[in-house]
Specification:
about 350 residues, alpha/beta, Rossmann fold, four-stranded parallel beta sheet, 15 helices, 14 strands, globular, binds 1,3-dihydroxyacetonephosphate, binds iron/sulfur cluster
Length: about 350
């Protein structure tokens, strides 16, 4: 089956066409009206992108938003698999991504051909697949999950149903521990969450003993074992907003701290450290490819635009619809602050 294509525009404006005095914020606002566009952004985007977005959310809330929007253009400021999900759920919309190269290490380590072989070796297993994968892998899966609904969905499956989980082995192992299910795990990791250091985290916690640790389940067990809360990006944000603590250690991509500092400017948020004690590892290099200038160009050019063959879209749609059916009731999408 042919995979997704990202179409460039041959006549496209480029970064070098932009005037040095160009104000991306004002121009994006104008294009939003002209193109009837909605800007969806993930919490890992740079603060200024989160601020211009119409909605900021985790993978599940953004999928729901993409499925429900009546805009003509979805500007997906996140990574490619997220924009692909928007196109699968809203095929009649134009879906643009500011940078066509904004991928994901989990998508990279799980290619459809290899995944098809893995499935064929375990024909009695149900394929529960993390949303961080290509449309091609989704099309070979039974149910898609995100970090916020995976446990809830797995708990609805018959107890003795054999499960294989791809592509994140840390999330898979965490879900196996939480649900008590045995699962065959694909050997993939997120390059951001895999780099947090348990030793440095314990050091930081010793210096800040009253700071709860909130971690994303893509982190390895050495980090999760110390966490007071484990959850999706939205779950981590909700935990922080509800906590009386004054300072927090955040073990996920550090740009989510933007929303925390906006909501709670008097509190302190510390990014979990990497092996050298720094928090540089907490930056997702793929998310960082998107900028306001590239967002403007994507809106003006209508490209890079996500397109995919209809047979691929329909095959990938099935496990995504199953996910939406089996998810917990809608949680409020965090509205971008004014
Ligand atoms: P969330 O679904 O928690 O937003 O996670 C997306 C992601 O890419 C985590 O690395
Ligand atoms: Fe992928 Fe990790 Fe970046 Fe999330 S943080 S988009 S899982 S590489």
């Amino acid at each position: 089956m042919q995979d997704t294509v990202i179409l460039p525009d041959a006549q496209a404006l480029t970064l070098s066409d932009l005037d040095p005095k160009f104000d991306p914020w004002a121009e994006i606002e104008k294009l939003k009206v002209q193109k009837n566009a909605v800007i969806l952004a993930h919490y890992y985007q740079d603060g200024e992108i989160q601020d211009i977005a119409d909605f900021v959310g985790d993978s599940l809330d953004l999928s729901r938003k993409a499925a429900a929007t009546d805009a003509d253009m979805i500007v997906f400021s996140g990574v490619r698999f997220m924009a692909e999900v928007a196109k699968i759920l809203s095929p009649q919309k134009t879906v643009v991504l500011p940078d066509a190269d904004a991928g994901c290490s989990l998508e990279d380590v799980c290619q459809p051909g290899d995944f098809a072989r893995f499935r064929a070796e375990h024909p009695d297993h149900l394929a529960i697949t993390y949303i961080n994968c290509s449309a091609g892998v989704k099309a070979l899966s039974d149910i898609i999950v995100t970090s916020s609904n995976a446990e809830y969905i797995i708990n609805q499956l018959p107890k003795h149903q054999p499960i294989l989980f791809a592509p994140d082995k840390h999330l898979g192992a965490y879900l196996a521990r939480k649900t008590g299910r045995e699962m065959l795990l694909w050997d993939g990791t997120c390059l951001v969450h895999d780099q947090f250091s348990e030793r440095e985290l314990v050091k930081l916690k010793t210096e800040h003993p009253s700071a709860p640790i909130a971690a994303h389940p893509e982190c390895h067990k050495g980090i999760l074992d110390h966490a007071d809360h484990v959850g999706s990006t939205k779950g981590i944000l909700d935990f922080v907003l509800a906590s009386p603590a004054q300072e927090f250690i955040i073990a996920t991509e550090r740009h989510i701290i933007h929303q925390m500092e906006k909501a709670l400017p008097e509190k302190t948020f510390l990014a979990a450290p990497g092996a050298d004690g720094s928090c540089n590892c907490a930056d997702c290099p793929f998310m960082a490819m998107n900028t306001l200038e590239k967002m403007y160009l994507a809106m003006a050019n209508g490209a890079p635009k996500i397109e995919m063959p209809e047979d691929l879209r329909l095959s990938a749609l099935k496990p995504l619809e199953k996910m939406l059916e089996m998810s917990p009731p809608t949680t409020k999408v965090t509205q971008a602050a004014e």
